[in-house]
């Protein structure tokens, strides 16, 4: 199920899950301030909650959580009932806490709040440094502070080991459907940086996400072009990823689809994205 | 002759301007040098793989649409007959979308232009059946609206059913047309069909001239009307089908260009054919330059500009038709 995630990444978390789970169970004997019926309606809060919640504490995740092309924890999520993220459906689950993203439809959020349900919103991660922050926020929301602290410590140690600075930083471009690219102030840009690459989108003045015309990309002449995932079916928006010009540059390698579900959410699973990118850099070095 | 020279020079000038305009601002001399002498730089890649196919496609597609408009107007003897307005482009787009969404075009790349052509043939046939050679403008336009609405709806349906999250956004492309980031793959797909279509349509000159005197007179002059009709259907479908398959439906070219040039060629349909081909090439090249000047880094659709120019002219033509009928 974990695809490119190595099992060794998960062991500490799973161990933490079991241990603190048992401790938590003992603690529930008295009046428990922890929310008992938690519903998540956002792909990223789904995954954070799946990592931190006690058994039985999380009662529903969003539909996307079970989609293996978007969710890094699709298999684990399959054990949970899903919701379509609508206010009506969520309310009928009688939750005492709803987890959403800051981009969740404001109408849904205000409707639930008006109905007297606590809604906790999580901002999308824009850097790897946001991962511990989101873990901490989720730990607090679920009353699982200790478990979150363990996970944060493991994450920070692993990240430090992975992102040891290389001597030579190759220049890379992240290129997605619709000529979309991202700069350094994004999670994907930060994964690229941690993996030891410089991002050419920054040279084109792109700090966050935006259009990088094919012409501009070619003139920037990056060492490697990392393409976004290919969706099923065909769309003209995707054709730019198959343009012959991308393969006509003599010094550029087109790395194909590297960005996947591990690049989407700020959870500790981004480490496998960092590892893939680092492996790509090492293979480039080996080829030279 | 003067008109021909003028139009050829205009197309050549616009072609060169189209080559030196792009998102990346590079001096014209430097970019043309990179185009001619491949020096292995990224600029040479941009010129040869991105801008050159784009300019070639603009000229080819413009010529195909201008020529088809002039031919249909000559045959139906109605200045409102235009591939976009009467639904031929929309039908071609539907054919292209179906071949893309069923995955047929992945198995066999030529399936894309063939499917567009097949649907375009159907649309032209329907128009001829519904409006007929002696049909009034009203029946022609009504038939066109019906075909456009139906093909547009089916195109949207096919794209909305696609598992690809970006397919629905493609509706705009298929309805409005764009040449952004096309490559030589598309040139090689479209060019042979456009060439065959153009050859068929250019062969209609004498027949269309004779038809200005009426069908009986044309028959008396030895024109086989069945042959003329067959070549018109296949020629228009091949030219418009191939153009639409790679660039989406670009409307109004076939309406505006023959209208502007009709007086200059003395209203002779045979002369209007080549003049409209050149004029169409110039118009689409100019529009494609304009979309890149107005919004360099966004893909503004060609159909937006065409409609801004074409719709007022279309209204004017309708008013004139109304006056003539009164």
From TrEMBL, chain A:
Residues 37-288 form the Fe/B12 periplasmic-binding domain. InterPro entries: ABC_Transporter_SBP, ABC_transptr_periplasmic_BD. Pfam families: Peripla_BP_2. One of its GO terms (biological process) is cellular response to iron ion. PROSITE patterns: FE_B12_PBP. Residues 1-31 form the signal peptide. Keywords: Signal. This is Cobalamin ABC transporter substrate-binding protein. It comes from Pseudodonghicola xiamenensis.
From TrEMBL, chain B:
GO terms for biological process: siderophore-iron import into cell. It comes from the Bacteria. Its main location: membrane. It is a multi-pass membrane protein. The chain crosses the membrane at residues 52-72, 84-104, 110-131, 138-159, 184-204, 232-261, 273-295, 302-319. Gene3D superfamilies: ABC transporter involved in vitamin B12 uptake, BtuC. One of its GO terms (molecular function) is transmembrane transporter activity. InterPro entries: ABC_BtuC-like, ABC_transptr_permease_BtuC. SUPFAM superfamilies: ABC transporter involved in vitamin B12 uptake, BtuC. Keywords: Cell membrane, Membrane, Transmembrane, Transmembrane helix, Transport. The keyword Transmembrane applies. This is ABC transporter permease.
